[in-house]
Amino acid sequence: MLVTAGPTREPIDAVRFIGNRSSGRQGYAIAEEAARRGADVTLVSGPTALADPFGVRTVRVETAAEMLAAVDAAFDEADLVIAAAAVADLRPAAPVEGKIRKADAPESIPLEGTFDILASLGARKGPRVLVGFAAEAGDPVESARAKLASKNLDLIVANDITAPGAGFDVPTNRVILIDEAAALELPLMDKRAVARAVLDRVEALRKESR
Ligand code: CTP
Predict the structure, then answer these.
(1) Alpha helix stretches (DSSP H) within the chain
(2) Does ligand 1 come within 6 angstroms of the Cβ of 134?
(3) Among 162, 164, 189, residue whose Cα is nearest residue 175
(4) Is the CB of 91 under 6 A from ligand 1?
(5) In 76, 83, 110, 153, which residue has its Cα 20 to 30 A from 40's Cα atom?
C-alpha cells in the first residue's frame, strides 16, 4: 500500500517557499491504521512536524517533483494507493539558487503548473484501487465526483474546508466518502476515526471488485 501525506514546499529561493496548511495528520493516521491492520505500507510525506508512524516505511520529500519520483518508485509494488497529500498545484517557474535580497525583490513571481501525481497514477491504474482526497470550499460533492472521474479513482474523500473542525491543520475532519454509486456523509470525527472509516470502505470496495 502506498500513502501520500502532508504539504509540498515549492522553492522561491534558498530560504523561501510556497507551501500550504496541511499538517499531514490525516495521511499519517491512514498509514498507521493500515499497518495495524497488516498492510505493508510506504508513506511518502511532505514536510510535517509528525514522527514517522510505527511500522510504516516513511519516505520524506519536499517538492511535488520529489513526491512524484518517490511515488513512482513505490507504485509498481502497490495494489492500493491513498493520496492524502496536499500537493502544490503551482510552483515558482524559476527558483533562485541563492537568497533574493529585499532590494532585488521582484514585484511578482511567475508560476507554472506542477505535474498531477494522482491523475498520472489513474492513467496507469491496472487492477489497483486508487483513493484521492478533495479539499473544496463549499459543497464538495459535485466537484469531488468530477475529480473521481477525471483522475480514474475508485473512491474520493471529500471535505468542505470551510466547515467548522474540518480540513487543514486541525485534529478532526468531516468528510464525505464518494464512489461511483454512493456518497456516504460522516459526522465530525477525529482524523484517526476518519482513517478507520476510509479503510473500512476500501476493504469493502476491494471485496466487491474480486
Ligand atoms: N494531487 C496529486 N498531485 C497534484 C495535485 C493533486 O496527486 N499535483 C492529488 C491529491 O493528493 C489529492 C487530489 O489529487 O488526492 C486532490 O486534487 P486537487 O488538488 O483538489 O485537484 P485539482 O484538480 O487541483 O482541483 P482544484 O481545481 O479544486 O484545485
Answers:
(1) 25-36, 64-75, 117-123, 141-150, 191-209
(2) yes
(3) 189
(4) no
(5) 153
Q: 104 CA distance to ligand 1 centroid (A)?
A: 33
pLDDT given for residue 72 in this prediction = 98
Domain presence at residue 200: yes
Residue 116 alpha carbon to ligand 1 centre in Å: 7
The per-residue pLDDT for 168 is 84
The length of the chain in residues reads 210
CATH number, position 169: 3.40.50.10300
Domain span at 72: 2-99+111-209
Answer yes or no: is 47 within a domain: yes
Is residue 170 in a domain?
Answer: yes
Pick left, alpha or beta for residue 138 (phi over 0 → left; psi -120 to 50 → alpha; otherwise beta). Answer: left
C-alpha cell at 82: 491513498
Cα 100 to averaged position of ligand 1 atoms, centre (Å):
30
Q: In a mutational test of the pocket of ligand 1, which residue from 145, 147, 157 has the highest number of ligand atoms less than 8 Å from its CB?
A: 147
* Count of domains for the chain: 1
Catalytic residue status for 159: no
Q: Is 5 in the pocket of ligand 1 (CB under 6 A)?
A: no
Contact indicator for 61, 43 with CB cutoff of 8 Å: no
Ligand 1 atom nearest to CA at 89:
8
Mean pLDDT by 10 residues, the chain (210 residues): 98 98 97 98 98 97 98 97 98 97 96 98 97 92 95 96 87 94 94 98 88
Query: Residue 94 domain-assigned?
Result: yes
